UniProtKB/TrEMBL annotation:
Biological processes, Gene Ontology terms: protein transport
Subcellular localization: Membrane; Plastid, Chloroplast outer membrane
Membrane topology according to the record: Single-pass membrane protein
PANTHER family: GTPASE, IMAP FAMILY MEMBER-RELATED, TRANSLOCASE OF CHLOROPLAST 120, CHLOROPLASTIC-RELATED
Primary localization class, coarse: membrane
Keyword Chloroplast appears in the UniProt entry: yes
A GO cellular component entry from the record: membrane
Lineage: Eukaryota, Metazoa, Porifera, Demospongiae, Heteroscleromorpha
One function term, GO molecular function aspect: GTP binding
Record protein name field: Translocase of chloroplast 159, chloroplastic
Superkingdom to which the source organism belongs: Eukaryota
Length: 287
């Protein structure tokens, strides 16, 4: 076969393959119109700010908390940009509830098929040790949902906008560059602590635990952190990468207008990374 004819046939085959893949991706994108997020952490840890930031709409009132005696998981629901969003809010395990059996049964019934699990830990925490409330809660969640709980999960360090006030080393740093470095070291240390706790104290597979992102979050009125102009951008993209692939297009739709109209909330490096790595998202589906 002549070289020209060979290349012509190869090109035609590639076009057919490309067309099939594009059709599958378009169908995947069009059919993704629902996001379910499970979020947990102690009462007062700042989950409402995080929920509203991820959804792009105020669906949870600031300061809104569950009664620590409740045995019902609270749902925040909305339809935003034609995407049905449900955020299951569960602070009871860390706070202690006298109706834990009912609480766990309710949680398993409602939250067994979520797209993303977010575990919030406040940067105000100074002690994280074996059998502390958070580690006990992680064990209960793992016993309830299995390793699946952590396969589409991320940790968020809340109140990171207060890092300078909470850490004397950062406060006393001589330069802004040193403050940034110390802040980033603090986040890395939390990554080591949380990953280590999952592996050693909770029994999560190391390969699963190592993949979990640990991202700092601030407050909607104080978006700037020591090393970034807006805390939301890295969290939004970390959530996009961590979540179940079926909900990724819906997550994009949910925040597309914000990416376009509020570039200050989306760091250019995060957007570039997403664009460069889009094939990795598609590859998760075996395409």
């Amino acid at each position: 076969m002549a070289e020209g004819a060979y290349h012509s046939q190869l090109s035609a085959r590639l076009q057919r393959v490309d067309k099939r893949i594009r059709q599958k991706l378009v169908k995947w994108f069009d059919n993704s119109n629902k996001v379910q997020i499970f979020i947990t952490g102690k009462t007062g840890v700042g989950k409402s700010t995080l929920i509203n930031g991820l959804v792009g709409k105020k669906v949870a009132k600031e300061g809104e908390t569950l009664d620590r005696e409740t045995s019902v998981v609270t749902a925040h629901r909305c339809n935003h940009h034609s995407v049905d969003v449900t955020v299951w809010d569960s602070p009871g395990l860390q706070d202690g509830t006298n109706q834990e059996g009912d609480y766990l049964e309710d949680m398993k019934k409602k939250c067994s098929d979520v797209d993303l699990s977010i575990y919030c830990v406040s940067l105000k925490e100074t002690r994280f040790f074996e059998n502390c409330p958070d580690i006990l809660a992680m064990r209960k969640l793992t016993n309830l949902f299995g390793q699946k709980m952590w396969e589409n999960a991320m940790f968020v360090l809340t109140f990171a906008n207060l890092a300078e006030d909470l850490d004397a080393k950062i406060l006393d740093a001589d330069t802004e560059e040193e403050k940034v470095e110390l802040f980033q070291d603090k986040v890395k240390l939390w990554k080591e602590v949380l990953t280590g706790a999952l592996i050693k104290d909770v029994g999560v597979d190391k390969n699963v635990a190592d993949r979990i992102e640990v991202v700092p979050a601030g407050h909607e009125r104080f978006p700037e952190l020591l090393d970034r102009p807006h805390w939301l951008s890295p969290i939004w993209f970390a959530a996009l990468y961590a979540m179940n692939s079926r909900a990724q297009p819906a997550m994009i739709k949910l925040n597309y207008n914000r990416i376009v109209s509020k570039p200050g909330e989306v760091r250019s490096e995060d957007l570039k990374k997403f664009i460069d790595e889009q094939p990795l998202i598609f590859a998760k589906r075996g395409e």
